[in-house]
Structures are given as structure tokens and as C-alpha cells.
């Protein structure tokens, strides 16, 4: 047992070394996967948040209750695993005493961390956790992204009204609550609008699945007017390629999981002419959007994807709420977040009583390897 | 009077063991800030890691029963954990709302649910063990792996399976399954795993498993490990003992899973993937096969190590350092840190013959 | 209420029978194998029975999905099986020689795919002729070097130590490879940031122009045909090396008895090195074909699941047996495809269910030999 004690003692030393140096600094925690299969998403999320906080720090910090504070962004890796996410949330709350947490990317990780933050009274804004349960954990838990039912309805409305689709096929990841929720929502709205979902195919875990030919063959024989490729951009690109390889020619539609500059590169010819629902359009002339896209490209050398955008928005909401709350008290920040009415990259954001944002969705078309804005949709 | 005498005898016999467990507990409680003299040094972050470490001890020692002491090779331990976690969470979260109960009924319900979870896991262990324990070595390994993945996939597809059964009119339990919400993960589990409880249960589990190992049945298991054919020749029903070891191990894995669910308060099928089984395998072999001491120390150390690397701000590297240390350890000490050795307080004193 | 009772009774009888019959069956099998000159086709009734069941299911499938869909799925399944087979061949070979489940095999597969990706991009940018062949050979060579290095550093010192120590080391190597290469270059100091791949998704260069053929309503892709052809060629080549050449003979000898080999003057270190080289170069070939087929590299973790599935396929076919690995892979690929098309939720599980069922009835896999334990 000596070894355990020794390690504990070392841990304790670090606790002290961390808590000594702090003056006029407000600590904000971030949780996202940096290692493991979802590391790409984590990197985008981290970059988005960092961009917002760096801008604030460059202007001399954030004004809370009349004093200027510098933001110290403490980032923790959750490996995409709920257990590790719980440790990361605990560490941020107990060890670093952060005032709020931005994270995590996956719903399962946020759900593991949320009860801890709720009990400790630390507000959490998850940029991308779409599962309905997330914000139902308690009043300290918020999110910056669409809910699945909303987005599913947007895609269904667009498919029926603009693409004149009577029948649709859905292919989704049944191991991912985001895609699964979206598929259910799409089916429901599409059938409510008079259409028919002729094929409802799933696969298990896009990290583990690269071959979709069995599902796509089924879809092909069902002969739909439109196919909803309900997955993140890498899997969606794979599916699109394989579908074209099987001789399927109908258009593809998708959701915000498609939004990445990588998507047209990965999908190539196959994803040309596809439509997807997104939070914003890079062509949007609003200065906040243009500014964000430009600064992001300058800093990281790439176009921001959906995760970076939502992370940036979450950071903006938090900064704004901190200023309005005028204190670093958890309850005050929570109330301020509820009262948010802020112009963000993804539009004017307000929160409903659950802590879910209310905003509208943009439809984007993939054309010549670029994203072209089509229209705003409010179902 | 006899009872008191017995207890005194027991304490005399095991005073070292009792002393050490009690002292460790007291030390942790003191560092936890229970006494007014010492400030709170162990934040809840450390307590949480310690709880995970204790659960991992249960898991590793129970895996040791199969892999270390009976000489079988199972890599599907997370499957049993999954069954235990979901069963006990079902009892405390869905069937009875433990969150709204008074303290003692809540505690009783929790312990009851842990035992039920363990039993369910043991039944699963029995069912999978019966037809497959005839398999040898790697074939058994791969079947247990398959079992773990099947359990996880069933939980994950539980809503679809329920809908399917409902459609063909067999059984209708869609509503219940909906509440378990397989692919989305079961949240709002009450935080019933208090530190003292996890501590006591893990000590109890380790003691029971240790006693099993040094009992007649345990000896039979050991003989299977050493030489199965010879054991059979000596009249030991090897299949029976393998199944006993398998079920017992599964039982404790189930209990560990139940505790895990109530520490994390959220369970998702992905918690219990193949990677998790591999983790326990690593803890086991790093500590030394067939050594309870090794399992305990390795499970504790390797649970703390990644978090320690996080605290010293090395998190980019921790998943690189961890396997590297493992490889170096296995190259330097192929039998694990402890090999077959044990701390003396874990080994019963030999009775003098004659 | 009667359904659960029936179910319970069936399960009970099933397990009862298994529990009683297995030892007897094994005993009779081993006696047949070793004492009486056992005729493989003696119990032809069993094979007929199994074939009838399979045909029945096929008939049901065709009835409900149509012949066209059936043939298309068959093609899909064979193609998926080929990818598994390529990985499984390397697995089974290494296992056959040193009885080590090389968990790092899936990661060497990943490494091969990344090497081909980088080299392929370079060659295409410089208008090099026949990029595919060059890339394939280069990546096989580099990965073989890495495989042999790993063997020298991590497995060789454990050769005469407990077998499981090597297994855990293999796990460690596997975790190390995937996590190391997944580090993002921005966060890594200088010399290493040139090596690591980063967690990003990479498009794989189109080394061969994609072409789709439509034969009687069944769509097939030229790359998929290539997969199948290369798999078959490599399997024949491998079988030739193992069965007909001196090195192959030495490999089989090492697999049979290491100490005797030492006495006969066979350099077992070299033989094991060569085995590793061949096995890992097969993994690299599989990686290259895999990436070419799907046109994308997901992350350095991409090797885990194909590797695991291929391992299961190898066990299914009888680990250590080269035709077995091939057969197991095709059985898995095809059954997975059909199961997925019937209900896509169960496609993932079906591999495992088939595995358990096969191993219950044939404990050494489809083509594996049941070795009697020596006392």
C-alpha cells in the first residue's frame, strides 16, 4: 500500500502547485476527446473554443463585475469514453475550480459528466451533444447545437418541398445517439409530410464499419427518391462513394455532421450535388461569420467545421453570460445563460427552459467541392 | 460466549489483514477531511479515482479466478460487468426509484440490486461456460470475447429487439426497454456507491475470492491450471470446477459492474466494450497471474497512472506512455510484478501436519 | 405464457445434451483421428443436414429479397471476405509458427495503409507510372521491416517465457502503435512530428481509376475484383511457400517443435523473423487494398476492428491453417453481409454468434485439426 500512498502524496503536491498561482484569472474548463477514434472532433472543438478565448484575452480580458479577468482555458481529454469524461469533469470542478465547462463532444461523455457538474453547481455548455437527455439532467446543463427532432424536421421538409421527394431511404449509425435520434426524427416528419420511408437501414458504429454495401444494396432495391446519409462526414463520404459504386444515382441529403472542409475531399465526385442542413453558411455576409471564418483560417489553416463553429458559439455564449452575470458564481452564470440573446456565428441564440438553443437552420449544397448556401429553413 | 470466542479467534488469525484494511480506510477518511485536524487533501476527484480503482480491483481479482487460478483464458470480462451494471441500475433506477428513498431502504435496495446483478452475471457465466469451457486456450478466449461483444450488442440493439418481439407478438416489453434506452445510455442513476460502501464490498469480494482459492474447490481449480489431464486423472471433475470458477468470477464482475454504474451514474454499452476487457487483462498480467496482491496493486496503480499523467499535464502522451510502460514491464518481468507471490497477510497460515 | 416455458425447456435440453455429449464426442473424435483410420466423410449425414439447412435459408432469402439482390449481396460478401482474408492470412501464419495472437497485426495493417497513402500521393503528384504496384510493394516492404523490428524488440526476449506474457506485450505494442501515430503533429516536438499521422481523416489517392461494371443487374467495381484476385494470388503464393519451399518446411518445423529445430541446425530466429516479415507484409497489402477500396483513411485506430474480425475469421477457419483462414473469412464476410441485409442491427453480432456456434460443434474451427493433449 506504500506505493499508493506515495502516488497520492505526489498527486497532493500537484494540487498545491496548481492552486498557488492565480490572480485575476477566471478558469474555464474544456472537455473533448483528444485521443481515441473521435480525436479529430475533439481537436476542432478545442480550436473553436481557444479562438474565442484568445480574442478576449488579447483585448485585455473579460470584464466581470468591474474587474478585468484573463481567461485560463483548461482543457481535458476524455478519449471519447464516459468513464474518463467523468474523471475529467471531476478534475476540472474539484481540482481546477473552474467557473464553467464547455464540453463534451459526444452525448455519452456529456451525460457522464453532467450529473457531477449539476451537483457541484457548475454550468456546462456542450457544443455538440444532441441527445435529448443531456439538458434534462438539470438546470446547469446547456447545449449550443440543434436538437435532433428539429434538424430531422428541417431535412425532411427540405426533401419534400424542394427536392419533391415522395420516398426516402435512411441509413444511420445505431450506436450513435446523434444519428439515431436524427433518423427517427426524419422518418417521423417525412411521413407526416406525406412521404414514405422505404428503407430504414442502420449500421453499428462508424469507427468499426467501413463497408455499407449490404445496406446500400437494400436501399437500391427499395428505389427511393432521396437518400438521407445520416452520419458524420467521414462515414457519409464512404457511403456516398459506395452508393455511387453500386449504381445509385438519386441525390443525397444530410445533416450538420457533414459540415467539414474535408467532406468534399473525402467524398469526391460522389457527394457532388448533395444537400445538408447546417448551423450557418460560410458565405453569410454578417461580419461575425466572416470574421470567424477568416480568423479560424488564419490561425489553423483550415475552414472551420460544424464542431469548431459550435464550440466557438458556446464560448461566445459563455463569455457574454459571464459579463452579464457580473460574478463567477455558478447560479448567477446559469441565470445569465438562460437570459442569453446573443448574435453568434450560427445565428441569434436564445435558450428555452430546458437549456436548448432556439435558432434557424441553413441548407447548404455541395458544388464543385465547395459549400454553396441555398436557403434558411424553419420547419 | 462461543460466538465471541470465535470472533476473537478470527481476529487473532487475521489481525494483520484487518489492521491493514482498517488503517487504509482511516487514512483515506482522514485525508478526506473527516477529522477537523487535517484539512481535506483528497478532493472528490481523487475519491472518484479511488472508487474506480477499488472497482477495478474487484474486476481484476475476479478475472484472476479464471485466468490466473484456473488457467483458462477469458477476455470477455466486460460482458459480465455489463450485465451486472444494467441489472442493478434497472433495479435502483427504473423498477424502484431509489433516489427518493430514505437512507436505509435505499442502502438495502442497493445491496440487493448488486447481488441480483451479480447473480444475473453468474447465470450468464454458467450458460456461456457450460458449452464452451471444453474449448482450449485461444479458442476459449475468442468465444469469451464474442460473448462480451454479443452482450453489448444486445443492450445496444435492445430497443430494436423489443420492437421486433413486439411485432411478432411474442412478448411486449418495449416500454421497459425504452426506459433502459440501450443505444443512448441509461442516465439518472442515483449516486449510491459511497466510498465506504465500495471499500467494504471490494474488501469483502477479495476476501471471499481469496477464501475460495484456498479452499478445497480452489485447490481443484489450481490443479486444473497446473495440469488438466493429471487433475482429471486424480478424479477432479474439471468441467464442473471450471464452471464454478467461471460463475463465481462472473458474479463478482457483475457486482463490480453494479458499483461502477452507481459511481458513474450513467452507463452506456460502450463502457463495456472489448477495450475494457483488455484493460482488465492488462491489469491482471501486469500484476502477475495467480497473485491477488499483484492484481490489487496493478489495478490500483494502472487506474491512477493515466489520471496522474493528466494531473501533471501530460495528457497528450498518456495513452502512449501507458502501453510503453506495459511493454517494458512485460519484457523485464514476464511473470508480472508479483508473479505468484502474495503479501503474507493474504495467505492463510499452513496447519502443521501431525 | 406458454412461449417462455417452451423456450426455457428447449434451452435446458440443449445445454443438457451438450454437457453430456461433448466429452464423449471429443473422445470418439480423437480416437477416430488417431487410432482408427478416420474417414472424414464417415458421417456424411451431418454434412447433408447442414447443407440442407443452409440451402433452406438461401431459398427463404431469395424468396423474400429476389435473386438479383441475393447475387449482389453475395458479391458484396465475397469482397468483404477478401479483405478479412488478407488480414487473417497474416494472423494465422504468425499464430501457426509461434502460437502468438499478434494483436498488433491490425495496427501494422493501419501502418501499411498510411504508408501507401503518403507514397501514393507523392507518386501521383509526380506522374509516376504504375503507382499501384509500386505503392503496394513499397508499403509491404516497409511494414515488413517494422514488423520484424517489433518482433526483435518486443517478442523475441519472451520466446521461452510464459506464452501470455508475449500476448500482453502484443497488446501493449498494439496500443502504443495506434496511440502514438494518432498524436496530432502540432502537439508533438520536432523529430516526432514528422512521423506521426495525426487523427485526421485522409482521402486515399485513386491509384487505379474507378470503373463500375453492370452485369445482368449486378453492379461490380473493378477494385473489388482486384481485391478478390490479389487475395487469391497471395493465398496460393503463401500456401506454396509454406508447403513447397525449404523456408516453408523450416517454418512448419519451427511450429512443430522448436527445440528439435535447434538440434537439426535450423536457425529459428531467422525463420521467425521471416515469418513475421511475410505476415506483416500481408497486413500491409491488406491495408493498401482496404484503403483503395474505401478511398479513405479514418484514423490510426482503423486497424482495430478489421483486425479483430479477421482474427475471429482465422479462428473460425481453424487458426494456423492457411486455407482455413481463407474459408473462415469468406464465411464471415458473406454471413455478415446477408445478416446485415436482413436486419442491419444484427449484422455486427452475427459474426460472433456464428463463431460460437461453430466452435461448439467444431472446437478447432472449420479446417483446424483437433490436437490431442499429450500427457
Q: Which key terms come to mind for this protein?
A:
heterotrimer; A: 379 residues; alpha/beta; seven-stranded mixed sheet; six-stranded mixed sheet; 16 strands; globular; B: 354 residues; mainly alpha; 0% strand
Topology order of chain B in helix (H) and strand (E) letters: HHHHHHHHHHHHHH
What's the total number of strands of chain C? 4
Mean pLDDT of chain C: 81
Q: Give the low-confidence spans of chain C.
A: 30-38
Biggest interface between chains? B-C, 50 and 54 residues
Determine Rg of chain B (CA atoms, Å). Answer: 21 Å
Assembly level? heterotrimer
Structural class of the helix and strand makeup of chain B? mainly alpha
Percent in helix of chain B: over 70%
Q: Report the major sheet of chain B.
A: none
Q: Per DSSP, what share of the residues of chain B sits in E-state strands of 2 or more residues? A: under 5%
Question: Order of strands side by side in the largest beta sheet of chain C?
Answer: 1-4
DSSP helical segment count of chain B: 14
Given as residue ranges, the uncertain stretches of chain B (5+ residues, pLDDT < 50) are none
What profile does the largest beta sheet of chain C have? 2 strands, antiparallel
Fraction of residues in β-strands of chain C: under 5%
Rough shape of chain C? globular
Q: What distance lies between the first and last C-alpha atoms of chain C, to the nearest angstrom? A: 51 Å
SSE string of chain C, helices as H and strands as E? HHHHHHHEEEHHHHEHHH
Mean of pLDDT of chain B: 85
- Helical content of chain C, roughly? over 70%
Amino acid at each position: 500500500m506504500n506505493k499508493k500512498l506515495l502516488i497520492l502524496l505526489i498527486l497532493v503536491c500537484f494540487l498545491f502547485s496548481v492552486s498557488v498561482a492565480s490572480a485575476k484569472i477566471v478558469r474555464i474548463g474544456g472537455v473533448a476527446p483528444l485521443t481515441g477514434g473521435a480525436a479529430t472532433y475533439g481537436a476542432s472543438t478545442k480550436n473553436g473554443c481557444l479562438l474565442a478565448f484568445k480574442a478576449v484575452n488579447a483585448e485585455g480580458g473579460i470584464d466581470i463585475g468591474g474587474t478585468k479577468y484573463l481567461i485560463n482555458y483548461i482543457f481535458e481529454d476524455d478519449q471519447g469514453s464516459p468513464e474518463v469524461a467523468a474523471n475529467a469533469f471531476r478534475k476540472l470542478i474539484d481540482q481546477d475550480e473552474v467557473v464553467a465547462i464547455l464540453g463534451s463532444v459526444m452525448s455519452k461523455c456529456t451525460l457522464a459528466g453532467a450529473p457531477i457538474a449539476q451537483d457541484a453547481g457548475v454550468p456546462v455548455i456542450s457544443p455538440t451533444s444532441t441527445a435529448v437527455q443531456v439538458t434534462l439532467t438539470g438546470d446547469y446543463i446547456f447545449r449550443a447545437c440543434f436538437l435532433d427532432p428539429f434538424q430531422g424536421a428541417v431535412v425532411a421538409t427540405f426533401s419534400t418541398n424542394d427536392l419533391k421527394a415522395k420516398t426516402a431511404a435512411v441509413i444511420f449509425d445505431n450506436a450513435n445517439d446523434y444519428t439515431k435520434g436524427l433518423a427517427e426524427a426524419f422518418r417521423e416528419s417525412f411521413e407526416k409530410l406525406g412521404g414514405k420511408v422505404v428503407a430504414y437501414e442502420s449500421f453499428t458504429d462508424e469507427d468499426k464499419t467501413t463497408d455499407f454495401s449490404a445496406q446500400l444494396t437494400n436501399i437500391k432495391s427499395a428505389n427511393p427518391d432521396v437518400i438521407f446519409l445520416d452520419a458524420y462526414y467521414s462515414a457519409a463520404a464512404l457511403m456516398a462513394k459506395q452508393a455511387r459504386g453500386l449504381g445509385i444515382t438519386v441525390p443525397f441529403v444530410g445533416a450538420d455532421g457533414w459540415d467539414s472542409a474535408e467532406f468534399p475531399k473525402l467524398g469526391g465526385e460522389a457527394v457532388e450535388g448533395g444537400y445538408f442542413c447546417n448551423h450557418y453558411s460560410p458565405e453569410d455576409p454578417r461580419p461575425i461569420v466572416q470574421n470567424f471564418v477568416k480568423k479560424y483560417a488564419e490561425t489553423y489553416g483550415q475552414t472551420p467545421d460544424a464542431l469548431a463553429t459550435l464550440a466557438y458559439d458556446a464560448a461566445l455564449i459563455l463569455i457574454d453570460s459571464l459579463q452579464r452575470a457580473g460574478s463567477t458564481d455558478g447560479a448567477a452564470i446559469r441565470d445569465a445563460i438562460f437570459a442569453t440573446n446573443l448574435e453568434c456565428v450560427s445565428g441569434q441564440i436564445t435558450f428555452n427552459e430546458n437549456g436548448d438553443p432556439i435558432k434557424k437552420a441553413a441548407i447548404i449544397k455541395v458544388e464543385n467541392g465547395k459549400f454553396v448556401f441555398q436557403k434558411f429553413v424553419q420547419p | 460466549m462461543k460466538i465471541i470466542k470465535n470472533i476473537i479467534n478470527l481476529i487473532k488469525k487475521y489481525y494483520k489483514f484487518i489492521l491493514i484494511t482498517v488503517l487504509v480506510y482511516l487514512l483515506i477518511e482522514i485525508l478526506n477531511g473527516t477529522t477537523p485536524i487535517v484539512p481535506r487533501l483528497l478532493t472528490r476527484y481523487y475519491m472518484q479515482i479511488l472508487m474506480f480503482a477499488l472497482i477495478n480491483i474487484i474486476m481484476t481479482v475476479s478475472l484472476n479466478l479464471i485466468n490466473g487460478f484456473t488457467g483458462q483464458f477469458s477476455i470477455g470480462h466486460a460482458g459480465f460487468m455489463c450485465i451486472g451494471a444494467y441489472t442493478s441500475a434497472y433495479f435502483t433506477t427504473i423498477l424502484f426509484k431509489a433516489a427518493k428513498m430514505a437512507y436505509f431502504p435505499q442502502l438495502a435496495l442497493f445491496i440487493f440490486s448488486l447481488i441480483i446483478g451479480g447473480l444475473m452475471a453468474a447465470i450468464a457465466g454458467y450458460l456461456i461456460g457450460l458449452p464452451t469451457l471444453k474449448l482450449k486456450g485461444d479458442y476459449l478466449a475468442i468465444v469469451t470475447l464474442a460473448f462480451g461483444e454479443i452482450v453489448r450488442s444486445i443492450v445496444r440493439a435492445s430497443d430494436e429487439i423489443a420492437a421486433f418481439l413486439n411485432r411478432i407478438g411474442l412478448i411486449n416489453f418495449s416500454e421497459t426497454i425504452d426506459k433502459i434506452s440501450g443505444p443512448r445510455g441509461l442516465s439518472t442513476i442515483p449516486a449510491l456507491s459511497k466510498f465506504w460502501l465500495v471499500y467494504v464490498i471490494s474488501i469483502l469480494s477479495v476476501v471471499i475470492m481469496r477464501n475460495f482459492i484456498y479452499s478445497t474447490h480452489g485447490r481443484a481449480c489450481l490443479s486444473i491450471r497446473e495440469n488438466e489431464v493429471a487433475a482429471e486423472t486424480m478424479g477432479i471433475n474439471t468441467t464442473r470446477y471450471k464452471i464454478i470458477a467461471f460463475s463465481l468470477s462472473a458474479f463478482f464482475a457483475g457486482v463490480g459492474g453494479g458499483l461502477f454504474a452507481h459511481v458513474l451514474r450513467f452507463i452506456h454499452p460502450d463502457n463495456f466494450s472489448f477495450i475494457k476487457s483488455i484493460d482488465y487483462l492488462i491489469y491482471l498480467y501486469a500484476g502477475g497471474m495467480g497473485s491477488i496482491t499483484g492484481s490489487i496493486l496493478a489495478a490500483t496503480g494502472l487506474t491512477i497512472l493515466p489520471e496522474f499523467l493528466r494531473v501533471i499535464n501530460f495528457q497528450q502522451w498518456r495513452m502512449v506512455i501507458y502501453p510503453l510502460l506495459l511493454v517494458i514491464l512485460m519484457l523485464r518481468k514476464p511473470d508480472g510484478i508479483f508473479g505468484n507471490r502474495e503479501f503474507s497477510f493474504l495467505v492463510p497460515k499452513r496447519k502443521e501436519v501431525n | 405464457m406458454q412461449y417462455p416455458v417452451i423456450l426455457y425447456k428447449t434451452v435446458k435440453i440443449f445445454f443438457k445434451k451438450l454437457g453430456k455429449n461433448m466429452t464423449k464426442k471429443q473422445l470418439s473424435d480423437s480416437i477416430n483421428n488417431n487410432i482408427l483410420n478416420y474417414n472424414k466423410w464417415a458421417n456424411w449425414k451431418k454434412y447433408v443436414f447442414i447443407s440442407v439447412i443452409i440451402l433452406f435459408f438461401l431459398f427463404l432469402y431469395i424468396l423474400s429479397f429476389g435473386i438479383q439482390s441475393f447475387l449482389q449481396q453475395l458479391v458484396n460478401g465475397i469482397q468483404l471476405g477478401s479483405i478479412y482474408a488478407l488480414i487473417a492470412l497474416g494472423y494465422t501464419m504468425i499464430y501457426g509458427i509461434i502460437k502468438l495472437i499478434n494483436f498488433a497485426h491490425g495496427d501494422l495493417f493501419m501502418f501499411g495503409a498510411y504508408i501507401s497513402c503518403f507514397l501514393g500521393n507523392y507518386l501521383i503528384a509526380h506522374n509516376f507510372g504504375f503507382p499501384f504496384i509500386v505503392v503496394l510493394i513499397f508499403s509491404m516492404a516497409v511494414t515488413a521491416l517494422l514488423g520484424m523490428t517489433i518482433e526483435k524488440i518486443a517478442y523475441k526476449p519472451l520466446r521461452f517465457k510464459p506464452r501470455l506474457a508475449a500476448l500482453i506485450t502484443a497488446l501493449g505494442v498494439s496500443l502504443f502503435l495506434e496511440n502514438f501515430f494518432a498524436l496530432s503533429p502540432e502537439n508533438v516536438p520536432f523529430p516526432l512530428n514528422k512521423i506521426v499521422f495525426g487523427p485526421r481523416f485522409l482521402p486515399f489517392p485513386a491509384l487505379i481509376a474507378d470503373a463500375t461494371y453492370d452485369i445482368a443487374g449486378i453492379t461490380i467495381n473493378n477494385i473489388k475484383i482486384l481485391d478478390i484476385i490479389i487475395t487469391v494470388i497471395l493465398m496460393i503464393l503463401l500456401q506454396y511457400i509454406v508447403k513447397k519451399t525449404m523456408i516453408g518446411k523450416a517454418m512448419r518445423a519451427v511450429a512443430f517443435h522448436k527445440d528439435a529445430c535447434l538440434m537439426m541446425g535450423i536457425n529459428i530466429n531467422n525463420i521467425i523473423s521471416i515469418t513475421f516479415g511475410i505476415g506483416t507484409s500481408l497486413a500491409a497489402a491488406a491495408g493498401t487494398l482496404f484503403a483503395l477500396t474505401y478511398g479513405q483513411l479514418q484514423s490510426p485506430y482503423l486497424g482495430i476492428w478489421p483486425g479483430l474480425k479477421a482474427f475471429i475469421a482465422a479462428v473460425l477457419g481453424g487458426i494456423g491453417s492457411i486455407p482455413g483462414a481463407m474459408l473462415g473469412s469468406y464465411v464471415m464476410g458473406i454471413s455478415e453481409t446477408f445478416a446485415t441485409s436482413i436486419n442491419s442491427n444484427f449484422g455486427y453480432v452475427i459474426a460472433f454468434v456464428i463463431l460460437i456456434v461453430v466452435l461448439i460443434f467444431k472446437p478447432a474451427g472449420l479446417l483446424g485439426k483437433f490436437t490431442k493433449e499429450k500427457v
